[in-house]
């Protein structure tokens, strides 16, 4: 059979492969052909011209306003530089000069971005002319904000808390526990304090309603929205993607209204029904290409593959899996004494980190790795060695072709799903 199938190994980078002769490709999630791809700048202009659930930008910003633009970090594909090229001139026209504008990178508990990465994300001219702050969830001067209705306090980056106008720029992507990322997650965990983030993530990620593609009854997402509303976001600019990782639409408006519309658009574009579980799934972790973020590319494949089946995961990585994550993985398994899923779950049920000396990101990725279904999985990644793959519980293959050939013997007549960009799939399955 010809090399008719592919997975993405980066933006516009397709890796083609063939399937064993008796395998049946039930699902191949190619993106429908598009005649033209609108420019990000054009979509951003149109979105700001027609905000949903919010007044026009010029009515939000008055002379003397202090504006905070909260932007997601380099682990997300949001083309912030293009969006800022539209947004910043409009703020200037509305009476807000650049010296009154602060750009806040919503790191949550992610690693600080380098100057080079900031320039790539925001644009070199923006970095050189605007005040740019990278959030530190551990810093001492975070500002207390009371959450209405329950009296809890979240502590927030001062550049955000002290702003008179807050604008968010993010990507609405499928998320393994929040249902969809972006939007309210810019503020919590994006610019919140470590203790609040850690308790929220550990407590809610373990809930059965915290799952990929689900918002209704999802406590993880519900809490993020509740906190974001308490902090306040006057305007949010949300990017929605197609299955090739291209932006298909930008929606601007009030936090709740724009997020709801963006989620609906994301679901329509990336949602796919799987009436039956697959014997084999071949997926890429794209667009999650930064270290332990690759686990997010497994979320859809975990859901659609039967327990006795297998997954091939191609994981292109712009940054490697940290050695410290691998060492921590070994430590947790040793401390768990043969039942790591229960060990991790016990901590999480109490809202406590099982790795208290590490970030929420580390704890979340570790919990996903340990509690995921025990489906045979072959990892293909130039950034992960065979020994590291084995430590993390994966088989290893140097190529997708060799991985598929290996499974061809074990599953001679497999029914197969190919997910070229596994991080851009919202699986719809029938609940039992």
Give the distance, in angstroms, between the N- and C-terminal Cα atoms: 36 Å
Number of domains: 2
Derived from helix and strand composition plus strand pairing, the structural class reads alpha/beta
CATH class of the largest domain: Alpha Beta
Strand proportion: 15-25%
Largest sheet: 6 strands, parallel
Number of helix segments? 15
Q: Which outline best applies?
A: globular
Helical residues, percent: 25-40%
- Give the spatial strand order of the biggest sheet: 3-19-15-16-17-18
Provide the CATH topology of the largest domain: Rossmann fold
The number of strands is 20
Uncertain regions spanning at least 5 consecutive residues: none
| Gyration radius over CA | 22 Å
Describe the structure in your own words.
It is a single chain. The protein is α/β, with parallel strands linked by helices and 432 residues long. The protein has 2 domains: 5-30 and 275-429, 2-enoyl-CoA Hydratase, Chain A, domain 1 (Alpha-Beta Complex), CATH 3.90.226; 40-268, Rossmann fold (3-Layer(aba) Sandwich), CATH 3.40.50. It contains 15 helices and 20 strands. The strands form 6 sheets. A 6-stranded parallel β-sheet has the order 3-19-15-16-17-18. The protein has a 6-stranded mixed β-sheet with strand order 6-5-4-9-12-13. It is globular.
């Amino acid at each position: 059979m010809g090399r008719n199938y592919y997975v993405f190994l980066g933006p516009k980078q397709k890796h083609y492969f063939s399937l064993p002769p008796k395998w049946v490709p039930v699902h191949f999630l190619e993106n429908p052909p598009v005649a033209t791809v609108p420019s990000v700048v054009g979509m951003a202009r149109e979105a700001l011209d027609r905000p949903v659930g919010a007044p026009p930008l010029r009515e939000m910003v008055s002379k003397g306003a202090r504006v905070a633009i909260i932007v997601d970090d380099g682990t997300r594909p949001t083309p912030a530089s293009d969006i800022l090229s539209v947004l910043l001139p409009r703020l200037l026209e509305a009476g807000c000069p650049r010296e009154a504008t602060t750009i806040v990178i919503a790191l949550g508990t992610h690693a600080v971005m380098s100057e080079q990465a900031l320039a790539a994300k925001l644009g070199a001219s923006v970095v050189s002319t605007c005040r740019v702050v990278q959030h530190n969830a551990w810093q001492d001067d975070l500002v207390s904000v009371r959450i209405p209705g329950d009296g809890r306090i979240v502590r927030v980056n001062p550049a955000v808390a002290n702003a008179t106008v807050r604008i968010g720029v993010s990507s609405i992507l499928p998320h393994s526990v929040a249902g969809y990322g972006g939007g309210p997650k810019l503020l919590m965990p994006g610019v919140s304090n470590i203790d609040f983030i850690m308790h929220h993530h550990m407590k809610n990620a373990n809930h059965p309603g915290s799952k990929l593609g689900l918002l209704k009854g999802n406590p993880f997402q519900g809490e993020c929205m509740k906190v974001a509303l308490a902090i306040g976001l006057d305007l949010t600019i949300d990017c929605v993607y197609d299955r090739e990782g291209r932006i298909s639409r930008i929606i601007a408006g009030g936090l709740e209204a724009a997020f709801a519309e963006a989620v609906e658009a994301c679901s329509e574009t990336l949602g796919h029904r799987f009436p039956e579980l697959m014997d084999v799934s071949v997926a890429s972790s794209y667009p999650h290409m930064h270290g332990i973020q690759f686990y997010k590319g497994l979320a859809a494949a975990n859901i659609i593959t039967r327990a006795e089946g297998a997954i091939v995961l191609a994981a292109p990585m712009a940054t490697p899996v940290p050695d410290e994550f691998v060492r921590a993985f070994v430590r947790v398994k040793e401390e768990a004494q043969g039942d790591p899923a229960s060990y991790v779950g016990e901590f999480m049920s109490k809202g406590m980190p099982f790795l208290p000396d590490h970030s929420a990101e580390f704890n979340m990725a570790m919990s996903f790795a340990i509690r995921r279904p025990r489906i045979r999985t072959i990892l293909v990644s130039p950034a992960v060695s065979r020994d590291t793959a084995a430590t993390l519980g994966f088989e290893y293959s140097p190529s997708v072709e060799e991985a598929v050939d290996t499974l061809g013997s074990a599953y001679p007549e497999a029914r197969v799903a190919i997910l070229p960009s596994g991080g851009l799939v919202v699986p719809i399955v029938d609940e039992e």
